[in-house]
């Protein structure tokens, strides 16, 4: 893994963005200038983040973070980036919960200043479990922590999800309801089918992903439960921690109305993704961290809701992640960083966790 090139996360020039950002800031805060503009190492491959400081004659603002929709000319990971929706979600969560959501300062819907819509929020200092190299590898602060410290972080992270689900009135989050017919879960899965169709349009399809969709139908929950506001990308890599306590909850672009278990399955599986990857490269990883049984028990204790049909929801998380991974792989092909697959089986091999997904489809993973 150490020798695998990291896929590019941006095609933009930070210096040019800084110049254009300063020009825009002057319209909102006359005389202001964006300085110390940096791209964080944890910048993802979807929406982009820039960190900067506002220099102004008045007492300066704290550091800021710019959340920028992906460049539409850069083979985006998702087909749509709805920044007003993210802004509205963050405002709702901030108003209706005690979660540490960064204060959103501005929303810019006009694409002309920076090329795409964006939002600006206050920057929160702290540390984030790394994705590259994953926090399950040796050599980072979370791996080096004690078992007690990781248990504290785990409990606090599950509590974030529990409080989100319990505290936001579902009727106030109806703007996050996905289009289509059927239950919220059915709409969620239908949206993923549409996303997969977009990813493979004109390209080799994935037999593994399609078999996973078929297996979902066989495992469909008998009782789905009432929908709640789902964070969507519920994982510790989207939390800034002060010590081992959450200081900021980030990345709301995948938020939706769905059963509670959609978030829980994602939280459990995204850790397993890193853990399995680490084991495959000869390291023990963190096998006792964010275990499925303990996440379920903690969530039930905090909310009174016992998670149901988690075989379905962890498979669904692995399937959703596989579609994203396939899109990222095809993005690498687009930029000449990888070779195009010659057959459908080759497309499956582009999915980094194809082995664990296949085991889930076969019922032999857990």
UniProtKB/TrEMBL annotation:
PANTHER family: AMINOGLYCOSIDE PHOSPHOTRANSFERASE DOMAIN-CONTAINING PROTEIN-RELATED (PTHR21310:SF40), AMINOGLYCOSIDE PHOSPHOTRANSFERASE-RELATED-RELATED (PTHR21310). InterPro entries: ACAD10_11_N, AGP_Transferase, Aminoglycoside_PTrfase, Kinase-like_dom_sf. It comes from the Bacteria. This is Phosphotransferase. It holds the Pfam family APH. Residues 82-278 form the Aminoglycoside phosphotransferase domain.
């Amino acid at each position: 893994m150490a020798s695998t090139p990291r896929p590019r996360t941006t095609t933009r020039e930070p210096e040019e963005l800084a110049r254009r950002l300063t020009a825009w800031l002057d319209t909102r805060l006359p005389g202001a200038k964006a300085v110390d503009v940096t791209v964080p190492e944890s910048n993802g491959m979807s929406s982009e983040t820039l960190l900067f400081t506002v220099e102004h004659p008045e007492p300066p603002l704290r550091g800021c973070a710019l959340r920028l929709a992906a460049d539409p000319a850069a083979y985006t990971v998702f087909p749509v980036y709805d920044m007003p929706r993210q802004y509205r979600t963050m405002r709702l969560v901030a108003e209706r919960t005690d979660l540490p959501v960064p204060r959103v300062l501005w929303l810019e819907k006009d694409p002309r200043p920076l090329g795409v819509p964006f939002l600006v929020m206050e920057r929160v200092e702290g540390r984030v479990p790394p994705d590259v190299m994953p926090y399950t590898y040796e050599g980072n602060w979370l791996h080096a922590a004690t078992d007690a410290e990781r248990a504290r972080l785990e409990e606090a992270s599950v509590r974030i999800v529990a409080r989100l689900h319990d505290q936001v009135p579902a009727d106030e989050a109806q703007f996050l309801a996905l289009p289509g017919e059927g239950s919220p879960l059915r709409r969620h899965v239908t949206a993923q089918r549409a996303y997969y169709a977009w990813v493979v349009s004109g390209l080799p399809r994935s037999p593994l992903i399609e078999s996973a969709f078929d297996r979902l139908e066989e495992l469909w929950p008998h009782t789905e439960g009432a929908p709640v506001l789902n964070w969507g990308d519920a994982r510790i890599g989207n939390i800034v921690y002060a010590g081992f306590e959450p200081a900021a909850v980030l990345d709301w672009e995948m938020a939706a109305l769905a059963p509670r278990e959609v978030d829980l399955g994602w939280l459990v599986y995204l850790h397993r993704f890193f853990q399995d990857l680490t084991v495959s490269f000869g390291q023990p990883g963190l096998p006792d961290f964010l275990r499925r049984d303990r996440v379920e028990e903690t969530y039930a204790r905090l909310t009174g809701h016992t998670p149901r049909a988690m075989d379905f929801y962890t498979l669904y998380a692995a399937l959703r992640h596989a579609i994203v991974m396939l899109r990222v792989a095809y993005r690498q092909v687009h930029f000449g960083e990888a070779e195009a697959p010659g057959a459908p089986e080759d497309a499956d091999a582009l999915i980094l966790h194809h082995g664990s997904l296949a085991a889930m489809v076969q019922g032999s993973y857990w």
